């Protein structure tokens, strides 16, 4: 394996789209921890497996990785990726008998972005052309290869290594995202790519590395570590609320469509802020005026269904099956709350609910952090 999956440059290719759209975000987000997620870990495991399978298929030395995320789906998706890559390699061999094939290669684009590097999943270089393929295991965001800065950075790096030898004119970038059946390919000529690198990438990267430039909020904020506290994002979202309507009485369909678009952005932002504030209140005991922590409602469960059925029948309740034993709520209705507690109370488990942040007006009693323990307020 060439380098570690956890090795990252400050200007990460996977964040290039956001950094180029909002250059000061690069330094602003450094003050927030780079927390990993199960999705990210699963993605790394899928990449390691894909790398191993591709190397094996090309008769290269590789040891099968083992991960807690191994699954039939991962096996199938990595097979699809490998099959696609082998097809590309076979086709490239038709035009060149001296192909260069790089798998999970560290790609350095320091010529354009100081200290910048990334890892290309597959780079195939032959006479006159260069192909870069990137495997995406995620399925929540469909990624397009069209003018994708991450791919363009990989290509720039590979070009600087091979252009002299292969006289490359055309580059092809492909995203293989098998879980959503997305195979996105974009072709560029080298001249246009270099123009972009000189005129857009270089100057913006310089600004970004100095923390300069204009803040610019947009769809790209969702992956920024500063997104919950970013003032520019807040200002932009509050501006969305100032929508002015031409007709004072009724909304047109166009206006309704516009409101839905705005509402979508606002609800994502509100949810980010709420999650962030809840985590601060629960994990660090931070106070937010007008809000308190309570225990969320938890679902009750029968501890032993057979015992419940026997006990309920012994108490004279026979109508307690539909396709299976009736739910706790239905049973409670059938018996009445008091009797239900007397007869089945010992056979019902009520797990503790998760803590959650709610407005002070909520009826539930507040829970406060006392000596690192949560206690219900008297
Ligand atoms: S949240 Fe958005 S606007 Fe704010 S720094 Fe990050 S990318 Fe820029």
UniProtKB/TrEMBL annotation:
Protein name: PD-(D/E)XK nuclease superfamily protein
Top-level taxon: Bacteria
One Pfam entry name: DUF2800
UniProtKB keywords: Hydrolase
Any one GO molecular function term: hydrolase activity
